[in-house]
Specification:
The chain is an alpha+beta fold and 451 residues long. Helix content is 47%, strand content 11%. It is rod-shaped. The N terminus is likely disordered.
Length: 451
């Protein structure tokens, strides 16, 4: 019954790849850097494994003259193994392709470069071996053995002969002209997410996920590798606050800030989101010429929505990718398990756990990310409001003063008019009195004359 369900799930995924319609869209190819033909790659600047182009050059050579193109045999430093070639070397360790003589099996042997190493480096090496050994999943590279030879610790790992996911993504992305092609690329990243999910279920945080740390075996199965920066959630931290651990372009905002104590599974979800974004668009969401430039973009800028770069990308896939790339860790998937489950829903044409953000949600997210700018804006609004009130009050007072002046002028004018009326009345009254007196005098004179 379980086998039947698993087959149905696989068939559903294939149906999604084949059946889902979509318009073709153009994307930029500037984001995927040139990849070497090596079998193991990472960043030497961080003390991890690096590679050389084409045929590996060994460091332990036998005496004698070397002809052009000739591979020099390597003296095997570990009994029971035949060392075939060097796969890569970094500041702390080196990885060899070797043959286990008793089992006649090709393996990868990782060992410390020198006998002079610190206790911290030794602890990290052992920590990595223990972490890988604790994960039993098809999408995580397996460790077969761990030991010490001539004072140098080593671990024997599963050998993956088809290189890394970096080269695979580059070749696959060039064919992302339709939804079906995009989904084939997403299936590759989904394998990585499932491998990281197995680690998260055991409380293991990778902290340096990137295409160069994902290997491809002969059956095209992807394997998460290089747990050199691994962190266990139930153990004490081996880094200090302020230390920046990881690879810049795939580093979460909290890692970029050096907040090692707050780094959890959500940091890995961010790195997986960067890988998914790169797989479907052909470019990283945050890139730059320097670490500082990349760090600043990771902290302060939003990624360009994938559908703006490639119209063929389905809306649900864009929502899943952007959720994994949320600046706020609490807005991301809690772990790779939930990330994987949403991709399963997507492939099976089922509703995903995310809804498109409205204007209000986008505004709230912006304010949380730009708290200083938001506070300054609020302060500016408050100051503007207060100034507006003061201006309005001043205008009202000026209007009131003008009204009072007009009222006073009217009172004065009316008083003047009343005064004029009174003066006229008094004048006319005096005239009348004078006229009356003149008339009386005349009448008195007449009477006197008559008498």
């Amino acid at each position: 019954m379980d086998d039947h369900k698993s087959k149905n799930k696989v068939n559903n995924k294939q149906d999604r790849v084949i059946q889902q319609p979509g318009d073709s869209g153009d994307v930029s190819d500037s984001g995927i850097e040139a990849e070497t033909n090596s079998e193991f790659i990472a960043s030497p600047a961080l003390g991890e494994i690096s590679t050389k182009d084409g045929e590996a050059i060994t460091t332990w050579e036998t005496p004698g003259e070397k002809k052009p193109g000739q591979r020099i045999p390597i003296a095997s430093p570990i009994p029971g193994f035949e060392f075939l070639s060097e796969l890569g070397k970094g500041g702390m360790g080196v990885v060899f392709k070797a043959r286990h003589l008793k089992l006649n099996r090709v393996v990868a042997v990782k060992m410390m470069i020198s006998e002079q190493f610190s206790k911290m480096e030794l602890a990290r090496f052992i920590f990595e071996a223990e972490a890988i050994a604790g994960i039993r999943d098809d999408n995580v590279v397996q460790v077969f053995e761990c030991g010490e030879s001539d004072g140098r610790p080593y671990m024997v790992l599963e050998y993956c002969e088809k290189g890394t996911l970096s080269g695979l993504l580059k070749n696959q992305w060039k064919n992302n002209s339709s939804v079906a092609d995009i989904n084939k690329t997403v299936l590759l990243v989904h394998q990585v997410i499932k491998g990281v999910s197995a680690a998260h279920k055991r409380g293991i945080i990778h902290r340096d996920l990137k295409p160069g740390n994902v290997l491809v075996n002969e059956n095209d199965v992807l394997k998460v590798a290089d747990f050199g920066l691994v962190k266990l959630l139930d153990k004490s931290e081996m880094t200090h606050t302020g230390q920046i651990m990881g690879t810049p372009a795939y580093m979460s905002p909290e890692q970029a800030k050096g907040e090692s104590k707050s780094v959890n599974a959500r940091a890995d979800v961010w790195s997986l989101g960067v890988m998914l974004y790169e797989a479907i668009t052909g470019r990283r969401p945050f890139d730059g010429r320097t670490f500082i430039e990349i760090q600043d973009k990771i902290r302060n800028e939003d990624p360009v929505p994938p559908r703006r770069l490639c119209k063929s990308i389905p809306g649900d896939l864009e929502l899943i990718c952007l959720k994994a790339l949320s600046k706020d860790p609490n807005e991301r998937y809690p772990s790779a398990t939930e990330f994987s489950e949403d991709l399963e829903h997507y492939f099976n044409f089922e509703p995903i756990s995310i809804k498109a953000s409205g204007v209000l949600q986008k505004t709230l997210k912006w304010t949380r990310r730009n708290r200083l700018v938001f506070r300054l804006g609020i302060l500016g609004l408050v100051v503007s409001f207060i100034l507006s009130l003061l201006v309005i009050q001043w205008i009202d007072s000026m209007n009131q003063r003008e009204k009072d002046n007009k009222a006073s002028a009217n009172v004065i004018d009316s008083t003047t008019k009343e005064k004029d009326k009174i003066q006229k009345a008094l004048y006319y009254n005096s005239l009348r009195q004078a006229h009356a007196e003149v008339g009386f005098t005349k009448r008195l004179g007449i009477l006197e004359d008559e008498s």
